[in-house]
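[[Local backbone shapes]]
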Amino acid sequence: MSTIDYDTPRQAAVEEDSLEELQTRRTTAQSAAADLDGPDPSDVLDLPGADLSDEELTVAVVPMQADEFRCSSCFLVHHRSQLARQRNGEPICTECS
């Protein structure tokens, strides 16, 4: 079994490139970048059934009932059974408590 001395410094393989080589490498890497002037992907991609322009959204709003409260922390309407405590006279639900 061979022993390896991990405390010895590593010999890094250093490539010395000229300034011109580095500049040509940089310009070729930039020219291979993605074309940002192309079409917008959302214009090209059509999802089936995604045309909702003729749909109308109607929601029936029901007022808060007598056995419900609005939590002063999360502002959701809960049933009175979810009331944990009151802080400064304002109700707090069990999830926020």
Observations:
- The chain has a mean pLDDT of 80.
